[in-house]
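Example record for the data management plan.
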Amino acid sequence: MGYNIVVVGATGNVGREMLNILAEREFPVAKIAALASRRSLGTECSFGDKTLTTQDLDGFDFTGWDIALFAVGSEATKKYAPIAAKAGCVVIDNSSLYRYDPLVPLIVPEVNPDAIEQYKNKNIIANPNCSTAQMVVALKPLHDRARIKRVVVSTYQSVSGAGKEGMDELWLQTKGIYVPGQEYESKKFTKQIAFNVIPHIDVFLEDGQTKEEWKMVAETKKIVDPKIKVTATCVRVPVFVGHSEAINIEFEDHLDEAEARDILREAPGIMVVDKREDGGYVTPTECVGEFATYISRIRQDPTIDNGINLWCVSDNLRKGAALNAVQIAELLGRRVLKKG
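Corresponding structural encoding:
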């Protein structure tokens, strides 16, 4: 006995990854539907050894379906998620639409699984921002031990976080630098992304933050602890897949770097690779296709009383999006629906 699953936005980067992960993790699926907009109608998607043909999202009847994984933008989610939820299908939404709704749980299963019970408020569960998801997996076990006061994080975010258009732009600009006559002007990004870094993701807010930076602040508080102070600088880098973060953490209590390393080694969802030698750390290219959030460069911060620095890397299409959504579905199945 399994679940009837819908993947909404199945032809996009995250939607395809959701299908891959559902198959890889052998999620108990009784029936599955791949939905897309009319312009992608009939496109084929892989689900394990099966090939699915996309159906039209507009007009799809969600009655009788258990879980819908949404991987479309906020506008489409705003229209279709309430329809699915009203039909009795639990929505797990990857957009930012419901993340800050106090009635909708924002879930990272390794961090705040008990919040899953709140799904009953609207029959909707929110998936956090990609940069937040990997960071809070590292923060939570350390917070449980020594209580975090403040986090300063700088992100190095891959172009896949901006979708297929972002990946295409990096490829075309890189090719254009080497091939005369194939120069490619920036369209998706505000400046050239090839061989460059851009300290700007999402729109600017009045206080000088970008919305991406604000998301990390608001979501960390909602998922882990509202008392934690967070300041972020989010940067787009010329990497296709994999987000990296340099994280500085100030604690209320002293935490030795050796104990921090041991805590992280035992924490769910984390793989510690931390050797103080050439190559003794993980980079984005090494985390692609992996489920884990990788932690390296764990060390004391000597400039404050109770400080730790660390390096955090994860596949943003997986833990930052599709994997976390599937893990939420697994959690929902274990704790609530219990059909698997």
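Summary line stored alongside the record: Residues 194 and 257 are 36 Å apart (CA to CA).
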